[in-house]
Amino acid sequence: MIAAVACGHTIGGVHRVNNPTITSTTNQGFDLTRTTFDNGVAVEYRDGVLTNPLAQPYNPNLPATSSDSRIFGSDGNVTLNRYAASQDDFFTDCVSVFSKMFNEAVPSSTTLTAAIEPYPVSLNMVVSLRAGAFHIQIGNARLYGLEGQWATFDVVPFDRDGIAFSSAQITALWTVRALRTLSNGANIQVRDFVTKSPGVSALTGISSVSVKLVMNDGSTYSSAGGHERVSVEDSINIDTGAAYTCIYTDPVTSAVGVNITIQVYSPLGYSAADKVEVYYEDSTDSTRLTYGAPIKASYRSSRPDTPYVYYGVFVPDITAINFGNFAARITRSTGVVSIDNRRGIFFKQEALNDCVAGATVPTPAPQPTVDLGRRAHGRRFTGHCPLKGWSRCQGVCVNTQSNIESCGGCIGMGGLDCTTLEGDVSCLMGVCVRH
């Protein structure tokens, strides 16, 4: 066990993002030569150099920080002192323990493939839709093993039609940070990039991001697999802006709900054949393996001058259905399914902002169903409505821009009850709309 831990912890380290209670350093190495396979982990342990975040003095309130030191000391430090005194002994025992792991623990029928080599040029990014615009909060372009072989290294976005952004557009919308280098055996050169506020407009859209790498001989790098370009998925996106997807507290019942706005790519306009749904994790299941019944989204409106339309879901009381983290999906008439689930992580409802009072379509306030609207009549206000832009109709505060029973105003004061119309109707910006 001592050899397995010491040999396994002579390279690498502990990442803060995964273990914030163990280290405050982004990536704290197990020893000072974290990229070199040597006996440094033993030498530093013997000499009292506390580099290894897992070989600290025992702390009963945080025993994880001494997990290595307790194993190392289990034989009175005899083995670690031997490793510190002789790197040859260390290597010999590492070969032995790794051989046992690979040759005895792994079935003899197992065949190892060739070592996996990183792509010479690759991209990684997280794209989101916020307040009607596309944003890249985290993006990086990486070069592996190409140091000294290239002349220019740029990150270029392409619009919806596949046309590269102009220099002026990139300057206005793009921040590409200074080149940085990582050394993990081989040098990795990285350019980090993000979008500037207010993001990339849905009018132009963004279809992909590519690395443009001009080599020293004047050629432009291109791989057979196209790994230097990453496509942007815009078939379906949850808009996380505060005026779009947000926590809504009912002014009458104080029930906490959530309003979700979903943008769908639909160049021919609204299609009744598209099935848009929100699916969610059961908040009572800590394993996050139980899901509630999918909630069908309702069409809300089109986005003028863009190929997108809005759908919405309003959950009036998240505790009533154990509504936890959520995602969205669309099933086209062809059977093709697209999802927006934050790359498998899901959107966290507890991270959402409160809804903006008085906003219209896509509205953060509920677009009430008939049942929800009628239920609200159980309690009535006699004073002014607490939310800006709302009206008191028959003793109930409502948003007349979206309330299905008081659309455009109170009944008798210019408003209409959309529920009296036939078909699937809703109130959009104060107007009854049949879908």
Task: Describe this entry's structure for a reader.
There is one protein chain. Strands 3, 4, 6, 7, 8 and 9 form a six-stranded antiparallel sheet that branches. Strands 12, 13, 14, 17 and 18 form a five-stranded antiparallel sheet that branches. Helices cover 14% and strands 31% of the residues. The protein has 435 residues and is of the alpha+beta class. The protein contains seven helices and 24 strands. The protein has four domains: 2-105, Peroxidase, domain 2 (Orthogonal Bundle), CATH 1.10.420.10; 121-232, Immunoglobulin-like; 234-357, Carbohydrate binding type-21 domain (Immunoglobulin-like); 367-435, no CATH class. The longest helix has 19 residues, at 87-105. Mean pLDDT is 84; it is low at 359-382. β7 and β8 form a beta hairpin.
Question: Keywords, please?
Answer:
435 residues; Peroxidase, domain 2; Immunoglobulin-like; six-stranded antiparallel β-sheet; five-stranded antiparallel β-sheet; 14% helix
